[in-house]
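Take a look at the protein record below and flag anything odd:
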Amino acid sequence: MRNIFILLFTLCFVMCAPRQSDNTISVDLDHPEKASLFDYFRSIDLIPLETSSDALVQALTKVVEHDDKYYALDKPQCLIFVFDKAGKFLYKIGTKGQGAGEYAFISDFNINPFSGNLEILEPYGRIHVYSLLGDFIETKRISYPEFKVAHSLAALDNDIYVSHSLFEPKKIAYFDLNKQKLLHEEFEEDISIGSYSQIPYQYKDEWFFYRPFHPIVYKIGKKHLEAFFKFDFEKYTKDGRTAVLSQEAKMNFTKNIEEMYAQYSYMIQAVRHNDKYIFASVLWKDNDHRANIIYDKSTGKSKYIIEFDEKVWFNSYRGEEIIVTDQYAMMPIQWVDLEKRVTKEMLNDKQQIILEKLLQADREQNPILIKYWFK
């Protein structure tokens, strides 16, 4: 009798316990759907970044918003421009050169949540630490014996970092910066597709990692990668860690692209999420066909959208990094692309005036932050 009671209790516990979703997002790439941007957003703001002789930006690839300031990375100039929340230029951080605190190249930067300082990463193992006002503090070196190169960096605590490599077969490395010790490496991938890389993204206090042909998005856990959600593209879904390329394709970028799309019908260009949605920008069959995937967590359904009703771009077209919070989605856009990103009819009266002034400018302007406010 006692054994029967234990069995019944066990069955009740198993059946009554909350069931975990497998977090699979089904996407039918053969049947695009219609959608308006205003199905998801209530309004759009344009934040022109001030153009002046002291602030001439070539290209922004990453923007971090912190304490009502925008820290914007201009990779070509190896500088971080700092603007206030209205887009007014404040100051620059960093200096290209060979002296103390200077560097030859920036592969990534972040604001370390544990120290409160800004950290600039050089790919071959130097981390230049600055205050948020731009004062140089120190240079740290990544010099554990197995280290080769890092293209992005995320601090998990005061000592433990995760780096991401574009070209090494194992993409993710956990290491102790203080002890100069490699903890472990993971996510091994064919090096021939290493150049199709996406740097990990941050949502709130956590970091997430994905690859362009691999269907799973991972959370960067404290000790290892944890599967967070996955895309199911039905017959098009592949693991995406290996590719068979000809010698010509390894030397010729155009041929490389052609052969990659012959093996993978899609390339995931960007992924972001918040508490309501998961967004993905996808290249479909070639580099000219860009589409969006928007997954609504409340309904458990996704939409595959080739063109929005507004007939404007909502993708990372030039490598711009998209920011998604619970309040808004934001990305830097080039002044020359402004009319491809937004129309007058999409804006309120105040924003229409800003748009008109930008379109009437007699010389090229700095990039503009376009901010989409969620409903």
Observations:
- DSSP finds five helices and 25 strands in the chain.
- The chain has one domain: 22-374.
- The helical segments are 2-16, 247-251, 253-263, 338-341, 349-359.
